[in-house]
Specification:
This protein has 332 residues and is α+β, with helices and mostly antiparallel strands. Helix content is 50%, strand content 14%. The chain has helices spanning 45-63, 68-77, 82-89, 93-101, 107-116, 119-128, 134-153, 155-165, 181-195, 199-217, 238-247, 282-295, 300-307, 311-314; strands at residues 11-21, 24-34, 41-42, 226-229, 232-235, 251-257, 263-269. A 3-stranded antiparallel sheet has the order 1-2-3, covered by helices on one side. It starts with 10 loop residues before the first strand and ends in an 18-residue tail after the last helix. 31% of the residues are buried.
Length: 332
Amino acid sequence: MKSPFTNKEMSVVKEWRTMSFRKEEFQVLFHSYKCEDTGEQFEDELFAQLNYNQVVNQYREKYNIPFPDQIISIREKYNLSAAKMSEILGFGTNGYRQYEAGEVPSQSNAKLIRLADDPHEFKKLADYCSTLDQKIIDKIHRTVENLLEEQKKNKLDKQLENYFFGTCFPNALTGFKTPDLKKFTEMVMFFTEKLQPWKTKLNKLLFYADFMMYRQSGFSISGVQYRAIPMGPVPNNFNGIFEYLANRDDVDIYYSNFPDGGIGEQFKPNSSKVFNKDLFSDSELQILHSVAEKFKNTSTNKIIEISHKEKAWIENNDGKKLIDYRYGFELN
């Protein structure tokens, strides 16, 4: 970005600042451009959004306020329009649409949205709504019954997902995203199709993709937690997740014996599966391609060495701690 005073390229400045939201103060790593000649600092649209996301994400976490993707997901599982959803919840249509677009609900409205996530409770909310047409109520009843049946059928999958990712609310350890097994699976498939990596390298590719996305936007891609181990950052419970994906034929894993007695695991595409780019935003896809291009010729040993220079690994390796996504701002 060029200075409006001198038309020279400005430097990027990152500094911890206190920002206020709804009369509460939060610490954020404030991003701006600085004009070296005048000392003036400026935000472009991307930096302004990133700074705002940091403070708002902390507020959402503190008060357990649903994130936009959660709010949209709740509505979509009942197959309802935003207008009908707002009618059932008793919100104004425009206000509800703004919640889906990123506006932060009040704490009372947030509680009602969380309540609607439970099919049993949502059925009650629909029944209490005096303005709904009976056909819509009947449709909601059928949808709820189908959802409850699906929950019974998918109980094992849900238990596995909870085992892999936990049941925590989006926070700094998930990159302020709800852990998403489908998205994480597609990330594995993407790097497998592009690079056919060994498992250790794949773990680093996933780490860099998620943490680079957080550095850019304040949100991760997958919502997966990462842990620092001697071989570098890895997705938490990665062995179990990869075994699960291989058993479902999402990817193929080939085993090789190394001269030192070790066993290597190389990920290769399954011919029956194709990467689904529709699950990702344009910016997320850009990050995936950027990481693949950056490390396409990097050996496994080299990418381990690179990851060991990251503050995210250095400060968490002792004790194999989970890594706060805010280390993404300090990637080398």
